[in-house]
Specification:
- By secondary structure, this protein is of the alpha+beta class.
- It is built from seven helices and four strands.
- The chain has one domain: NADH Oxidase (3-Layer(aba) Sandwich).
- α2 packs across α5.
- The radius of gyration is 18 Å and the shape is globular.
């Protein structure tokens, strides 16, 4: 299913096509495709080139790891994510390696890496759905994540599927129009809350 963004201004078609489905096809993701997705994430920008991102990846074929990761999701996400052929978890290293000081940009940089992963997935006919709904401490225990790292987001990954296969409540959300806050409420000029002047220019 395609669900392009109704953008108010011209943007790259790849960005228009990126979205986060809950319906996934029963189709495995080839290892070479997975390698390309995480290669894209590898080349994200980061503060001091720290590259604080790490990923735990569980293709369905690895039933033990897949089951552990699925168990970390909240029940509402387990309902649909269990159909995705790949689950993953993004993790952030919280301190800089060169001076051991706190890296307040770590989560930002992990998000940047996952955004590139999402765009690479879109370019290859795949999709990812990132989730805040997971138990971080359960994930830490299940996978032995060190204290200097912080679980950030769970990820369902695969080929988009048929929304009709979803339960009714999820199907309605899947088919609902995409929406975003207007730029004037997001992009400011010289004072907080004051829309950037160029937004009003034709």
């Amino acid at each position: 299913m395609d669900k392009p963004a109704p953008a108010d201004h011209p943007i790259h078609e790849l960005i228009r096509r990126r979205w986060s489905p809950r319906a996934f096809a029963d189709r495995p993701v080839a290892p070479e495709l997975l390698r390309s997705l995480f290669e894209a994430a590898r080349w994200a920008a980061s503060s001091y080139n720290e590259q604080p991102w790490r990923y735990i990846v569980a293709p369905r074929e690895d039933q033990q790891t897949y089951g552990k990761l699925l168990d970390c999701l909240v029940p509402g996400n387990q309902r649909w994510a269990r159909h995705a052929p790949v689950l993953a978890l993004s993790v952030a290293r919280l301190r800089f390696t060169h001076n051991d000081r706190p890296n307040r940009h770590a989560w930002h940089d992990v998000g940047a890496a996952s955004a590139l992963l999402a765009l690479e997935a879109t370019a290859r006919g795949l999709a990812i759905h990132q989730m805040a709904g997971f138990e971080a401490e359960r994930a830490r225990q299940a996978f032995g994540i060190p204290q200097e790292f912080d679980p950030v987001a769970a990820i369902a990954l695969g080929y988009p599927g048929d929304p009709q296969a979803l339960p009714e409540d999820l199907r309605e959300r899947e088919l609902a129009p995409r929406q975003r806050r207007p730029l004037a409420e997001t992009v400011f000029g010289g004072r907080w809350g004051e829309p950037l002047a160029l937004l009003h220019l034709d």
